Amino acid sequence: MKKSFQPGRQPAAAEVQSLLRLLDSGQWAQAEAAAAKALMVHPQAVVFHNVLGSALAGQQKWAEAVESFKKVAAIAPQSMEAQSQLGMLYSRLGRHEDAVASYRKAVALKPDFAELHCNLGILLGLLGRHAEAVSSYAQAVAVKPTLVVAHYNAGTALQALGRLDEAARSYRQVLALQPASAEAHSNLGAVLQAQGELAPAIESYRAALAIKPDPKVHFNLGTAYRNQGRLAEAAGSFESALALQPVYPDALNNLGEVLRDQGRMDDAVASYQRALAQAPDTAEATYNLAVLLHDSGRLDEARAFFEASRVRDWQERVLECLYKCERYEAFETGMDKLLAVRAAHASPLLATLSAHHAATFGVADRCDFCKDPLDFVFHDRIDALASPDSSLRERLLVDIASAEIAARKQGRLYNGTQSSGNLFKRPEASFRQLSGMIAAQVERYRLRHAEAECVFSKDFPLTPEFSSSWYVKMQTGGHLTSHIHETGWLSGVVYLAIPPRPAGTDDGSIEFSTHGSGYPRQHTRFPVSVVSPTVGDIVLFPSSLFHRTLPFSAAAERICIAFDVAPAGA
Hints:
By secondary structure, the chain is of the alpha+beta class. It has three domains: about 15-230, Tetratricopeptide repeat domain (Serine Threonine Protein Phosphatase 5, Tetratricopeptide repeat, Alpha Horseshoe); about 300-370; about 375-565, q2cbj1_9rhob like domain (Jelly Rolls, Sandwich), CATH 2.60.120.620. It is built from 25 helices and nine strands. Strands 1, 2, 3, 4, 5, 6, 7, 8 and 9 form a nine-stranded antiparallel β-sheet that branches. α4 runs antiparallel to α5, α13 (about 215-230) runs antiparallel to α14 (about 230-245) and α23 packs across α24. It is elongated.
């Protein structure tokens, strides 16, 4: 503990030195006794109150130490050190507001003490008062621009506030002063990844690992690789994390997701099961295992795992399993309970189930997400893509053909390839440019339906993000079976290449309906709508709407980019 002594009545130098030697040697009890004895003779001697307070603190007698330093502050009100010590002791006692007040008095007494501003910032950060912490760190670096810890802590506080550009600048300042800071490289990578800047994030993570191997950094690197669609490298990163930290359920879960995307379903199941063996309450692994069981038709088993997970849309997934098993009574009971909650009406999957059930049994559709989704299908074109000599379309086709993106295996796609990762988070300028054009179309779509009386329109995300985006390439006979996008809000597709369509056919078109995905039905009176796109077209629709791609027979490729828009951070 830091000791600073100011004179009250001056005791003998030898007596003071004797006490200091006891402190320096860690003989706290002896120092306490000697200081108490000395104070009987010199009750106003600041040096003895300081020694007594330090000795008490050394024995973790925090409350008693506070009383000693309060006496120092009363005798010597200009003592910055006394206020600083009180701040530390109040923190130990959990008296956080008193601690902040003492640190503020200390910095007021000595505003040019950078480390003191930094200590106040650390306390404010621990209290979750990140904006105030940022201000303290700014004062610290204004006094001492080379104070690395203040720049670093400012970065973490700015991250917590979502001020990512400023956080990145703080971490870069750390690296300018201390290039070998693995922690700053890692945190900069996390900031860049949160901003969707995956390529520089990967560079930062790799720089951190070159300095110091760390399982968490390998894990973060794996998530960045997966978002880029680099599945083999993602798997390698998760395996490296596990080599350093074998008990790491989150890494096993994420490895399972990569293996699933690679089509290695048995290995994915094994990875999820390993995660659950390590931590049975790993909700994401439980949920992901349920999805695989559902997709393989093992609905009763899937339902049990969805119920156990209790994350994301687990309740809707349970209802879907019941509905597909035609256990209608249990389904209706569960749906009634869920629909009683206002927030549940914002679920595309619940909307799909409710609409299908209503049409099947001739009852009212009580989900308010989007009762007439076919009316919300929007078909337009993007002129910059539709032009025969569109340079953007050509660049997109080249990037799709040459980019280092692994295929994502999925059972609904025939005679085709789907990309993994999030296309619009990749570094290629063509994908970034297209995402901006689509964002403008999404805003026009929002305004077009702003007055509609449904949750889909009323709660349409004002700050949407592309929660997923991918390309689909199909060859002759290619098609995609009926499905919805459960995790989206608004879904869409842009067309870059369309095979010739024989007159009078719907070859290669997109078909919409309120029935699909193997749902049970008692009749065929479900509405159907077909959109036959051309090159440069964009189609937008509620994520709750079933859709499929109709097969085509022409000897040509069909290439499109699909995407989901969801509320930011969903």
